[in-house]
Write a structure and sequence with these properties.
Layout lengths: L6 E6 L2 E6 L5 H12 L6 E5 L9 H13 L6 E5 L3 H14 L5 E5 L2 H9 L1
Parallel strand pairs: 2-3, 3-4, 4-5
Antiparallel strand pairs: 1-2
Helix pairs in contact: 1-2, 2-3
Length: 120
């Protein structure tokens, strides 16, 4: 029996949407970054953490942010929807490490707020 997917990637007009179906580990997130790097026109990204939690250490979050910033295909805006308190907090920590001059990053609890911000 095949393993269940950790995430699904789809496109909603100009937004690349990544929905996490299970809680990712650091290696899953690195594989995702490599996959996204190959996608053309992925400057707006929406991460949905509605069905899963991020349970990484601060060191793993910082390392992941360093890897993400070093990628070639940089998005201009990243939004995370994290209704759960743990993932919301970890996402806010990631934001501090991930933001750069060329990439805005925001964390939301509501999907529509995140979509509106990405399209603003």
């Amino acid at each position: 029996m095949a393993d269940s997917p950790i995430y699904e990637i789809s496109r909603d007009d100009d937004i690349v949407q990544i929905e996490f179906l299970q809680s990712p580990e650091k290696d899953d997130l690195v594989a995702l970054m490599e996959e996204l790097e190959q996608m053309p026109d992925s400057s707006l990204r929406l991460y949905l953490m509605i069905k899963a939690e991020i349970l990484l250490s601060t060191a793993e979050v910082r390392n992941g942010a360093d890897i993400a910033r070093s990628r070639q295909n940089q998005p201009s805006k990243i939004a995370v929807v994290a209704p759960g308190n743990i993932t919301y907090g970890i996402s806010r920590i990631f934001k501090v490490f991930r933001e750069s001059e060329s990439t805005e990053f925001a964390v939301f609890r509501e999907l529509e707020e995140a979509r509106d911000w990405l399209r603003s």
